[in-house]
Each structure stands twice: as C-alpha cells, then as structure tokens.
Amino acid sequence: MALSNIQAPQAVVMIRPHHFKVNPETAADNAFQQDSAEMDKMELARSAFKELSVAAKRLEDAGIRVHIFEDESTETPDSVFPNNWFSTHSGGHVALYPMYSEARRKERRSDVVDMLKNQYRVQDVIDYSGLEQDGIFLEGTGAMVLDHIDRIAYAVKSNRTDPIVLERFCTHFNYEPMVFEAEDDNGVAIYHTNVLMCVATSFVLICLDMIKNPKRRDEMIKRFEYSGREVIDLTQSQIADFAGNAIELHNGEKSILALSSRASAALTAAQVSIIKKSSTLLELDIPSIELAGGSVRCTLAGVHLTPR
C-alpha cells in the first residue's frame, strides 16, 4: 500500500437502515442529536433509507468500493453508524468494540465480519465487546481518530472512551494513545472524537478551541505540523454543522474527502482551498441521518485490508 493510501481506505462498509429513528438511549451525552418526537416516524425512516442509498451510489461513482448491508431490525436505531462497533487495520486485523448503549450492542453482526474474511486477507479478529459486562467502553473510530501514518490514536475522554480499553487497543495495534478533554462553549463534553476532528494525509480538520488543556492542545498541533499536515482550525459552530465529521478516502488515483452537504456549506473558502490542494470534496446529503447526532464519517467504516 502506497504511503498516500495508508490513511485513506479505498473501500467502506455501509449499513442501510429500514427503520431509522433517533435513539433516545444516546441522547443524554450526545449534544449533536436533535429531538425528532414531532416528526413522522415513517417519513423519517424513508428519508434516511434514501439518503444512505444515494450516498452509497455517489461513493461508488467516485471510485470507492462500497459494501452495503441491509438492516431490517426495529431494535437497532443507530445501525447506520457502523464505524463504532468494528474497525479494520492493515496487516489483516479486525477489532470489535464494547458499546455504551445497550441498543447499540445489537448492531454487531457476523455477516459483516464474514464478508471481510471472504473478500480480504484477515489474520485475526480481536473482540473487546466482552468488556461491556464490566461497564467499560470504546466505540471504535467514533471514540478514536486514528493517524495510521504516525500511529497515534486521538481520543476525547467520555463515557464512550474508557482509558483501559484504549490502552489495550493501542498495545494490540501499535498506536500511541493521545487522550484529551474537549467540550463546547456550554461546558458540554464532546461524546465522540470524530465529531471534533478528522485526520487526513495532508491536513487535519479540528476545533482547537474545544480542547481544554492548553499544553495538550499545543502538543497535538506540534504532532500535526511535524507530520507535515496543515491544520485547519474549525469554529464551534462549524463543528455543530459536522464539519469535523469527515473522512479521507482514495479511489486509486486521488484522495477524496467525504463529508455532508451541511458540513461542506459550513467551511470557509480559505479552508476549502487548503483541502483542495490534496483532495477532492465529495458532498453527501444526509440531513435526516444527521438528526441522530452523527454525519458522513460515522456512516462509513473504512476497510484498511488487502483484497484477496
């Protein structure tokens, strides 16, 4: 795998929901969720199904390989966000994660893992999900934003990111943990690291203002700059519009930054100019799905495995 592709996967897994709804179980610590009580539930589900379908088609048209799975269950409202329950890693490794919400634990499915084993070179599957019984959680690449080049796992402290599991993951997968506290202007803690920041090959999208400890903030900036990445400092309002919840992909010829239409509209011309130095922007319109508190990054589980 070429260096330019280490950070950016060429394939993704997506889960198409048939009964999407906003999960009340996760609202307590997810300030990005919106109350959908007044909305027509069937219409919301239909909209989310269509949005995911169109997004998958646009990714395929852009040259990204999409493995799409159907979720017909009524018991998994957040299944559209698969990046939280599993991740894949170069060298043939797959990780399964312990989930904070009981409803979200039902999202794990063996057919996704079987597909990965059948179509890619998988050496092992490391399953951390049993730690749910001990009340400790690590929600995948929502809880962690991984720098696959410099081997750093950036992680915001939260109910969904336990330092014990993080340490185990970093030991198994050879990452250095970089833990920090982050909150918005109202003092509300950030629930997932991937709404705060996106690490691409040549740049980083991040809201530095939300990082509470100045020393840790300066250390992170130095890490980014040392790796040659340009830091794009986002505002808190841009984070609220999911501008940090993006993911760099690669179609074999060029890098693509996938993000939502809402997120793209929130970026300034200067910020877009920096991104376009190395990546093409791919806007995906998913307003119904974003009501659940996640955006494009959350809907895409990157495949960092070698095809068979």
Automatic annotation (TrEMBL):
Entries under InterPro entries matching the protein: Amdntrnsf_FN0238 (IPR014541)
- Pfam families per record: DDAH_eukar
* Lineage top rank: taxon: Bacteria
Fetch the NCBIfam families from UniProt.
citrull_CtlX
Q: What is this protein called?
A: Amidinotransferase
Record the organism: Marinomonas colpomeniae
